[in-house]
Design goal:
Blueprint (H helix, E strand, L loop, with lengths): L11 E5 L13 H6 L3 E4 L17 H13 L5 E6 L3 H10 L4 E7 L20 E2 L4 H6 L9 H10 L3 E2 H5 L14 E5 L4 H9 L6 H4 L4 E5 L6 H4 L1 H13 L1
Parallel strand pairs: 1-2, 1-3, 3-4, 4-7, 7-8
Antiparallel strand pairs: 5-6
Helix pairs in contact: 2-3
């Protein structure tokens, strides 16, 4: 007779990429998670599977519903990893079913405050939001540091326009139990001390993090896309968080 300690439940790690990305964005992270004994599930959200995908009418609610379907289908503990814009559906799934989630890991991201949207000023009739030029991203504070020219070329070639309705949609969080879910934030393009100061000062964009019961902040200095610039180090941090 074997014990549950000899055969523990598998820990599922659901990997949600940021805007313009699909499951492919985690291709250099997944093998390390598998070698660590975790079960990674990289996700491609609706409208991001191909440039020709129909993105008309898609909203954040569609991404949340798709992500919930992934979580519901898994047996065993679940760790949600949300990078950048992927933090919005991740935090909504935590809010919808907080007891189902073992831990949340935000990669250069965090949960949006109630009612906030990532790009509320996108035109109401816009269906697509294509990947901006690198200079425009850098100007707006979204660093591509650490990604070489070949990596940037692959990124742009494989990117898919983000559904504009997702970027415009406000976040809705209502269940206070979400604040009890252990949370790790990986600071990549933002120094950890900047985030800690924002939390201490209860700046609006960090309000959700300020109210968490169990918050861990770790630093991985690089650009905004550490799955491209420092995948092995990002994998190590995700493994450590998932094992807590």
């Amino acid at each position: 007779m074997t014990s549950s300690q000899e055969h523990p439940e598998p820990v599922h790690v659901v990997l949600v990429p940021g805007f313009w990305l699909g499951a492919w964005a985690w291709e250099h992270v997944v093998p390390d998670l598998e070698r660590a004994g975790l079960r990674p599930h990289p996700v491609t959200l609706p409208g991001l599977d191909a440039p020709s995908a129909d993105r008309a009418g898609l909203t954040l609610a569609d991404h949340v519903a798709a992500l919930r379907e992934v979580v519901v289908a898994l047996d065993g503990p679940v760790v949600l990893v949300g990078h950048s814009g992927g933090a919005a559906p991740v935090s909504a799934v935590v809010d919808a079913d907080p007891e189902r989630i073992r831990r949340v890991v935000y990669v250069d991201a965090g949960p949006l405050p109630e009612g906030a949207a990532i790009m509320p000023d996108l035109p109401a009739d816009a269906v697509d939001w294509p990947l901006p030029e690198w200079a425009d991203l850098e100007r707006d504070g979204t660093s591509v540091a650490g990604i070489d020219e070949d990596g940037l070329a692959r990124f742009r070639e494989r990117s898919v326009p983000e559904p504009a309705g997702v970027a415009r949609a406000p976040s809705h969080l209502s269940d206070p139990r979400r604040k009890q879910v252990p949370t790790t934030v990986v600071c990549a393009s933002m120094p950890a001390q900047v985030l800690r100061t924002a939390i201490d000062e209860r700046q609006p964009w960090a309000a959700e993090l300020a109210d968490l019961a169990h918050l861990e902040i770790v630093e991985l200095p690089t650009g905004h896309w550490p799955m491209f610039s420092r995948p092995a180090d990002l994998s190590r941090l995700i493994v450590a968080a998932a094992r807590r």
